[in-house]
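How a chain folds remains the central question behind the approach discussed here. In the encoding step, the backbone of a single protein was reduced to a row of integers, each denoting a local shape. We regard such an encoding as a compact summary of how the chain folds. The sequence in question and its structure tokens are set out directly beneath this paragraph:

___
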Amino acid sequence: MRPILRLSDLCGHIPVLLLPALRFSTTECARCARRKIFSLLYSAERSARATYMSRFSGLPANCPLAAARQCNDTVYRLTQGNPPVADDVLTYAEEGRPLKYNTPSAVCKSYGISVFTDRRDAVHRQQAWPNGGGTYIATAVLTAKDGDIAHTPPKMATSHHTWWPCDGVDRVSLFK
């Protein structure tokens, strides 16, 4: 690396040290170099996002939620069957349920599956709404290959999360 010393070769901006590995010409100024760096970073970010999104097809824009992270949790879900069947692990979108609110966040959550990370919250939900959840509580150990998860509690603070399974994940076999 060597500093740019000939100001007459520049476009009037402050010269910078340039990294040969980034393939900048020796006469680029800080502004021009910064544009090139941002362009490289943006294309790398877009490529990473495309790879990430290929794990989830059919989701609306900005979904999973920005707060989502890769799964690494034991989760609990209310089910009608023991063992669970395919109908026990459908999203609201797959069931065709109408949304109470038509916000981007609510639409995104409708493409995920409601789970709890604390068994006590699943038991509480089961007892509080005996007709609206399930007779059984199924358990799954989710890993990064199973999808993303975000803490999405209702008005009361609970361990409710929304799980967006990756394409190809056999949801039923995860729950016991």
About this structure: The two ends are 59 Å apart (CA to CA). Residues 69-174 form one domain.
